[in-house]
Structures are given as structure tokens and as C-alpha cells.
Amino acid sequence: MLPRRSPIVIRSFLLRTYASTPSPHALIFLEQRQGQVDSGSLSALTAASQLGGKVTGLVVGTSEHVPAVVDKVKKLKGLTSLLHSTSELYAQQLPETLSPLLEKLLSGSEYTHVVSTPSSLAKSLLPRVAAKLDVPSVSEITSLEHDASSNSTTFTRPIYAGNAISTIRLSSSIPIKFFTVRATNFDPASFEENQEIEVKAVDPVDVPECPTEHISTQLTKSDRPDLSVAGRVVSGGRPLKNAETFAATLNPLADVLGAAVGASRAAVDAGYADNSLQVGQTGKVVAPELYMAIGISGAIQHLAGMKDSKMIVAVNKDPDAPIFQVADVGLVADLYEAVPQIIEKLKQ
Ligand code: FAD
Question: Any idea which positions bind FAD (predicted)?
Fold first, then answer.
């Protein structure tokens, strides 16, 4: 004889069936610093829009910056509503102070996805909240597909320094799907001047005993384009000898091209360039129109950060350097002779 099903079991089955087909509703963390929205957030918004449902933005900060940011981002195409929370608590944008707010917003909500750019903040914030909710967080996705009928989302992301692509499917059993978006794979969302969306303030969530204290912030000041989104990048490697030679050799080339400057890890580790300029697996991932690799061997960890560039130009004195395998234009030459000549030609 079959055991009798209890009504509770049946009800939970029905609830689960009902809960397994909600329309997607993404909450996107629109990261801002000093009133500047992180450009990667705009690409993350494009990815969130591809889920095919509602997209609610979240802006957090102090009263000095939030109103202006809200005024700007509410025109972002793809957003269907916008939340903002203002407090001195959020002055430093620490994951410890932001996670209780995010948890509160998600609790009992209809959100199906939480999305962000893979910034240092989001790399700590999203997994932190996801772990509290006992769900996974998928990082740096390069494509996504949402199947509304099964309420599952399939992501791809590069692994092994970009040498393999992993496909991850989060099924309907994961009620809220967290992911960060690799900016180079999605166009940034544009602005729609006439767009009107619901904008709502949400109360900050106090953190009485914050375990982290902000001591100081050190920002690298540069007039050059932001490396992550620059259309042209000039990167240098180990043979640039020291910080002075690195700057004296590459800056004039970057100036004439209006390019951002990048570096290999060898150049960063040797102190020629700031850590924030590192391109590669453990640095920034870039995909500019033009990437110039000057005295860079082309180790797989470096290629992981630049091989999707539209045009790769390499200058290296070793004809067998691996960088030539991905270069569209390769120049076998001593960089100290070649770079000044390239600058001269470009000036003409
Ligand atoms: P080298 O390998 O020393 O190459 C220098 C090149 O310059 C050579 O090809 C040489 O022929 C050429 N050269 C020398 N003199 C001249 C000259 N006068 N004119 C023209 N060419 C010249 N690396 C990264 O870049 N980014 C990362 O994110 C990164 N992450 C890593 C993560 C891990 C876990 C590991 C293990 C390594 C990582 N690396 C990373 C390091 C990487 O493996 C390489 O060691 C590094 O990229 C080498 O830097 P390079 O090409 O500047 O130096």
C-alpha cells in the first residue's frame, strides 16, 4: 500500500512549482565611487537585461554623491526601477556595511538574480551575501541565457587562464542567482533621456559592531583613459628596466595614441608600474580596439587578460616569443629602437 501523502507535502510541492517559474527580476548593484559610476556596471546592466525581465538598480553612498548619481543612472536604458540608500555608513563602500542592506532587500523579495561588475568590492560583497542565503555566486561570466520555462540560467565563464570555457547552469532550485559580469563581453548600457522609471529611497541598515575599520584610501591619479575600458592600450614588460624607463618609453607612445598604459606582471612585480595597471589573469581583463605589447613575452597568464583585443601589435626582439602567436602585427625588433620610430611615424 502506498503511504498517504500529507497535505503539507502536497502544498510544498505546489509552492515549489509556483515558485519555480517567476519572471526574472534582477537587482543590479550600480557601484559608484565619489559620484562616478563604475563603467563595468553599465556592461553588467546589459547582461542583466538579457535575462528578459525587470531590472532594478541599487545605488548606495553618502548624501554628497547619491542624488547626482541617481539623477544620472535613472536614465540608463534597461533599468525598470531604481533604489537608493544614503548614509555616512556607506562612505567607504565596505562589504561589511553593504551586505546587511543587500540581505534586507533580498529577504522575502521577488528578486531572482543579483548582478554586479566584478570589482574588488563586489568580489567580496556578492559571495558574502550569497553564502548567507546558501546559494552559489558565479563570477566573471562572459555570456548568459535564461530559460523562463524552467527558470534556469546558464552562464559561461573562462577558466584555466582563458584556456577553457566552463558552462554553469543554475536551476530553479537556486531561488536567487548571483553573478558578476566580465565587462569586455557586454556593451555598456546607453542612456535614454526620456526614460521615466520608479525611483525609491530605502533605509540604510545599521551595523552596530562593524568588524572592519577604514583607515585610508590611496588612489592612483592619472589623466589617461581607464585601462579597463580604454579603446587603445600600450603595455610594457620586464625589459623596460625600471619605473623611469618604463614611463619615458611608453608614455609618449600612449600620448600620441590617446591610450591607457598597462603592464605585465613582471613589470608590476619589479616596481616599474602600479599594481592597478597589471593586465592578465590576476590583473585587469581588457579588450580594446588596439593593444600594443612592448617587450612582453606573451605568457598564458598575460594573454588571459588581453587576447580578445581587436588588434594586437607586438614588439619583441625574440622571433619565437609566444606573443607573436596572438599578434595581428608583429615587429621583431629592439623596443628601444622601434618605439621612438613608431612614435615619429604616428606623429607624421
Ligand atoms: P618576460 O617573460 O621576462 O618577457 C620579456 C620579453 O621581452 C621576452 O619575450 C623578451 O624576448 C622581450 N625582450 C627583452 N628585451 C627586449 C628588448 N630590448 N626589445 C624587445 N623585446 C625585448 N603575468 C601577467 O602579465 N599578468 C598576470 O595577470 C599574471 N598572472 C599570473 C598568475 C599566476 C598564478 C602566475 C603563476 C603567473 C602570472 N603572470 C602574470 C606571470 C606570467 O607567467 C609571466 O611571468 C609574465 O607575464 C612575464 O612578463 P613579461 O612578458 O614582461 O616578462
Answer: 238, 264-265, 278-282, 295-302, 316
Distance (angstroms) between ligand 1 centre and the Cα of 298 equals 6
Instruction: Using the mean position of ligand 1's atoms as its centre, give its distance from the Cα of residue 317 in Å.
Output: 13
Using alpha carbons, select from 187, 153, 149 the residue that is nearest to residue 171.
153
Indicate if the alpha-carbon torsion angle 240, 242, 244, 247 is positive or negative: positive
The label of the residue with cell 559571495 reads: 127
Residue nearest to atom 39 of ligand 1 (CA): 301
Q: How does pLDDT run across 217-258, given as a tens digit for each residue?
A: 887 777 888 898 899 999 999 999 999 999 999 999 999 999
In the sheet with 113-116, reading across from the earlier edge strand, the strands are 137-141, 177-181, 113-116, 25-29, 54-61, 81-86, 198-201
Residue 234 pairs in a beta bridge with 261, 292
Which positions ≥6 away from 103 have C-beta within 8 Å? 129, 132, 133, 205
